[in-house]
Design a protein that fits this description.
This protein is globular. The chain contains four helices and twelve strands. About 20% of the residues lie in helices and about 20% in strands.
């Protein structure tokens, strides 16, 4: 089944699955309500679609073999305090590393990462311990890259010590689509992709996906459905 895309609005928060059965003890419920909130959105980060600065967080977002690969509220909750700390230092968000080895790139507070190699290859971080969310937006952008733009895509674990070799970086998610990253700061180094303008690959990926959403570009996958 292809991703659901809405023109002009996005699911701003993760879908909510609420128990409404007669359960008091600690056990799975027998009845649930499923709710989705949608709302018009603009650029995800303050200042519009332009490169932002991130810091590498000293905190962990998700444990190995935990629920990091599930779109659950608790996974966002773990990023809230680190996000407040990052904002107080002038950063838009955090880059979280894997908690097992602190070697591999995982996610930001609420988005997946994308990188671009010098030869134009799109590199999409994956986790060998299932702690990265396999988001719909990430899947959509991979399909766009391969089938609309003819790009080569690598989906694999990405070591933090190699991100300085990439020429572009971005964060992707439902509301953000793609937010370009201009700089990543850690304790001992600063990786700069450029704070002046959006990289050409991130710009093309974003414009192509949003053009499919708006109907300006032919939808090859049957993603877009008109809801009366």
């Amino acid at each position: 089944m292809g991703p659901a895309l809405w023109h002009g609005c996005h699911a701003l928060y993760p879908p909510v699955h609420v128990c409404d059965g007669d359960v008091i003890g600690v056990k799975p419920a027998d009845e649930y309500q499923f709710r989705i909130l949608v709302t018009p959105v603009g650029a995800y980060y303050k200042g519009g679609v332009k490169p932002v600065k991130l810091q590498v967080s000293k905190y962990d977002r998700a444990a190995p073999h935990g629920t990091g690969n599930i779109k659950a509220g608790l996974n966002y909750a773990m990023s809230l305090y680190p996000s407040v700390e990052a904002h107080s230092k002038g950063y838009a968000d955090n880059m979280f590393l894997d908690s097992q080895s602190r070697t591999f790139v995982e996610e930001s507070g609420g988005a997946n990462f994308l990188f671009v190699k010098k030869d134009g290859t799109l590199v999409v971080p994956q986790s060998h311990t299932d702690s990265i969310l396999p988001s719909i937006t990430r899947r959509s952008l991979v399909d766009v890259a391969e089938n609309y733009l003819g790009m080569t895509v690598e989906q694999r674990p990405v070591r933090f010590d190699e991100i300085g070799d990439f020429v572009e970086c971005g964060m992707c998610g439902t509301a953000a689509v793609i937010s370009p990253v201009g700089e990543v700061d850690s304790d001992d180094q600063k990786i700069v992709y450029g704070m002046e303008q959006v990289g050409p690959v991130m710009k093309q990926l974003r414009e192509t996906l949003t053009s499919i959403q708006s109907g300006e570009l032919e939808d090859k996958f049957g993603w877009v459905h008109e809801i009366a």
